[in-house]
């Protein structure tokens, strides 16, 4: 098999450094004959003899010694050019992150901490409840709740997200609590807007049952507004557990029909593309993986 010039130079430098073709062959996992042929090919390309050879040893010629010095330097520079930038001190550049807007309260403190730890890394954060076009928007990392249907993504599940049906004590005192899902039609509702359809997002329940909100008193496109409206007594809403839990603990919300709650959704951290990962992306990936595992 013919070797390219870079491979020939690398084999030659290995032989020159060790002063022995056999030792070079062992180091590079080649046969001694392959090393000999590589040196001969390089001699033909340069038109110069590179080694003085006899049965006991090989010794660089004057031209060979100069080629070794120049070649070693060029190989070192090439290796440095293509080596992964794994040092946290050297990591720099831009990382684009896409995440659901509802995760803003969780992400903000994590990203502020990361930015403080790594001042040379710039962050471009896209918060939206619509799935980002990872190619057009050149997304490096993403966070998504639910199943990832794109099998090309490199993903790791970092946590789960449960969905709670909740209402304020004041709303329940005035209107009573629903005893089953059918009774939801008799209650005021607060819902998030699905920008893709222009309708409220559906609510999900046990065994795959889906409910489409009908008595929507307030339709918003922000999860924080949705949470605030439910807490203010405007109606019943289905809220992600990490948003609802603080208000539940303070008695500002009441959890309804827990036996009807759906199986928690997986929360995944993903990279859109396989292949080498720049140090700046790897640093944020590892940081968010640890932070999101503990946020619940």
Short recap of the structure:
The chain is an alpha+beta fold. The protein is built from nine helices and 15 strands.
Instruction: Give the beta-strand count.
Output: 15
Q: Approximately how much helix is present in the residues? A: 25-40%
Gross geometry:
rod-shaped
- Major sheet description: 5 strands, mixed
CATH topology heading of the largest domain: D-Maltodextrin-Binding Protein, domain 2
Q: Which structural class do you get from the secondary structure elements?
A: alpha+beta
Number of domain units: 3
CATH class category name of the largest domain: Alpha Beta
Name given to the CATH architecture of the largest domain: 3-Layer(aba) Sandwich
Number of helices: 9
Question: Averaging pLDDT over every residue, what do you get?
Answer: 87
Low-pLDDT stretches: 132-136
Radius of gyration from CA coordinates? 31 Å
SSE series: HHHEEHEHEEEEHEEEEEHEHEEH
Q: Could you name the CATH homologous superfamily of the largest domain?
A: Periplasmic binding protein-like II
Strand order of the largest sheet: 4-3-5-15-6
> How much strand content do the residues show?
15-25%
Structure, described:
- With 296 residues, this protein is an alpha+beta fold.
- It has three domains: 5-82, Orthogonal Bundle (Arc Repressor Mutant, subunit A), CATH 1.10.10.10; 93-161 and 265-293, 3-Layer(aba) Sandwich (D-Maltodextrin-Binding Protein, domain 2); 163-260, 3-Layer(aba) Sandwich (D-Maltodextrin-Binding Protein, domain 2).
- Helix content is 38%, strand content 23%.
- The protein contains nine helices and 15 strands.
- It has helices at residues 5-18, 21-27, 32-46, 62-82, 104-117, 169-175, 223-231, 241-249, 279-293, and strands at residues 51-53, 58-60, 93-99, 121-127, 141-145, 154-161, 163-167, 189-194, 199-200, 203-204, 210-211, 216-220, 237-240, 254-256, 265-271.
- The strands form five sheets. A five-stranded mixed beta sheet has the order 4-3-5-15-6, covered by helices on one side. The chain has a three-stranded antiparallel beta sheet with strand order 13-7-14.
- A hairpin with a 5-residue loop joins strand 10 and strand 11.
- Helix 1 (5-18) crosses helix 2 (21-27).
- It is rod-shaped and about 100 Å long.
- Mean pLDDT is 87; it is low at 132-136.
